[in-house]
Amino acid sequence: MNIILLGAPGAGKGTQATKISDKYGMPHISTGDIFRENIKNQTEIGMLAKSYIDKGQLVPDEVTCKIVEERLSRDDCREKGYLLDGFPRTLAQAEALDKITKIDAVVNIDIDFSLLMNRLCGRRVCRDCGESYHVSMLQGATTCARCGGELYTRKDDNPETVQSRLAVYTEQTAPLIDYYTKKGLILNFTGTDDPPAVLFGEITAELDKLAR
Ligand code: ADP
Ligand code: ZN
Questions:
Q1: pLDDT tens-digit profile of 76-109?
Q2: What pLDDT does residue 164 have?
Q3: Per-residue pLDDT tens for 3-56?
Q4: Of 23, 26, 29, 69, which cross-links 81 as Cys (Cβ 3.0–4.6 Å)?
Q5: Catalytically active residues, by annotation
Q6: pLDDT value at position 130?
Q7: Which residue has its alpha carbon closest to ligand 1 atom 12?
Q8: 114 CA to middle of ligand 1, Å?
Q9: How close is the Cα of 36 to the center of ligand 1, in Å?
Q10: Looking at beta carbons, which pairs linking 159-167 to residues 24 or more positions away fall under 8 Å?
Q11: What is the pLDDT of residue 80?
Q12: What pLDDT is stored for residue 211 in this prediction?
């Protein structure tokens, strides 16, 4: 199965993506994670990406599309399909993707923006496994309950940068809902403050039908 996860920053794409790829066995490809890995390793792509990410802007399409194209050409994607988390984010990216592959479904997580600021600014992420937590649930813990890794606050999870990420989402990414609806590929879900397992149950009920 080739799946795209669509949704505003903080909608829960990353959390759902981990669970979906665990269940169906396809690789989870997060462009945000790929950029952060490159930033950590101080690669050329990392340096470039950082200048955009820190401002809450999108990394240019050309760079992003090239990375994704390379990743999708690897054996694991050809064998098991893939789950794209955070790509495409612009119409140009969606069109580029259409040229190189065929998508089976687009999981769209629709969420009330009023929930997102608190979620993102209170988010703590594990440096080692990428699991995310909300600070209000941690009771002072500074390590990951899943793997023991160190928890940190992403540099772009601050009120100012979150504002611009949400504006970018509305302007550049939200039009993709229409794009994929017209192609008959959209599966719509509503994000809430319920535990992630609830949404996961709803999503897998639909994906199970495709997997059969
Ligand atoms: P979130 O969904 O919480 O905003 P991501 O980890 O998906 O977080 O992305 C973090 C940042 O990485 C984005 O704000 C953007 O700057 C950059 N980025 C990720 N994916 C893309 C993409 N497909 N196109 C352009 N920039 C991207
Ligand atoms: Zn961890």
A1: 999 999 999 999 999 999 999 999 999 999 999 9
A2: 96
A3: 999 999 999 999 999 999 999 999 999 999 999 999 999 999 999 999 999 999
A4: 26
A5: 13, 89, 123, 154, 165
A6: 87
A7: 32
A8: 20
A9: 10
A10: 159/117, 159/121, 160/56, 161/54, 161/55, 161/56, 162/9, 162/10, 162/56, 162/116, 162/117, 162/120, 162/121, 163/56, 164/55, 164/56, 164/57, 165/9, 165/56, 165/120, 166/8, 166/9, 166/113, 166/116
A11: 93
A12: 83
CA dihedral (34, 92, 44, 169) positive or negative: negative
| Total residue count of the chain as it appears in this document | 212
Q: For residue 58, which ligand has an atom nearest its CA? A: 1
The predicted pLDDT at position 141 comes to 96
Q: Which domains does the chain have, with CATH numbers?
A: 2-112+173-211 (3.40.50.300)
CA distance 191 to 28: 20
The count of C-alpha atoms lying within 13 angstroms of the C-alpha of 34, restricted to the half-sphere facing its C-beta, is: 20
User: What one-letter code names the amino acid at 55?
Assistant: K
